[in-house]
């Protein structure tokens, strides 16, 4: 992955995204747009509606207009880019698409959404191809609307960006300061050979090894690590290091450090102080550790020794007092 596609997919179903409405889904269901993983295809697989597609497909239009689908982002935030993937749709893809976005408070119905702004203008598409569109709008959005002109099929819609949580709601609560859904993000990592390090911050439990972070086997005597930018400055009371599903490839040990980048640059080695000393881990185990250091941190560094994989990293604590801009 490169550029904005390295950021989390805010619309992903496993992150809580939902396709809440579509004007038409005659041939293939709208929910497929935000499924995890690439679209699959088995030729000559016919159902009552024709060839089965792993995507969203509308009927052939015989009247003016265009088709659309609305996605509620599982992780509201600032959108940096959109991917429209027409995989396997060759003779039935839409020749054009655009994307709109809006921000809504609470839990509105699709009919109550308004204030739509265009974040991707009407653009040409090709069949069986991945189309990446950068987005420059700096506002926080909660919903997107994919418009296709005039009709056809789209396999996947990816909405990459940086999560922006409701800080006023989180203040005073014990929360996971590292969680993607609260605005945490992996900003540096030694190795992501098998899977993205941001997987360890994802909501819920990892169902298999692919839903965690796993590095290549080290042969140089060093160790692997990642750095997490927290949801905001805060104090961490509990660290959870979960090796669930990692049976023969879990790290042997792990340690944790913290830093306050508002006071000392992260490039300065003196910025980092220990939160958890090098501690032995067990395979396929959820480890929980109470931390005694109550210093404020903005970033955490997890070192694993020498290599391996993790299902999840949780850093439970409280955000520092916050004043809205």
From TrEMBL:
It is an enzyme of class 3 (hydrolase). Keywords: Hydrolase, Purine metabolism. One of its GO terms (molecular function) is allantoicase activity. It comes from Microbispora rosea. Pathway: Nitrogen metabolism; (S)-allantoin degradation; (S)-ureidoglycolate from allantoate (aminidohydrolase route): step 1/1. InterPro entries: Allantoicase, Allantoicase_dom, Galactose-bd-like_sf. Residues 16-163, 183-319 form the Allantoicase domain. GO terms for biological process: allantoin catabolic process; purine nucleobase metabolic process. Pfam families: Allantoicase. Belongs to the allantoicase family. It catalyses: allantoate + H2O = (S)-ureidoglycolate + urea. Its EC number is 3.5.3.4. This is Probable allantoicase.
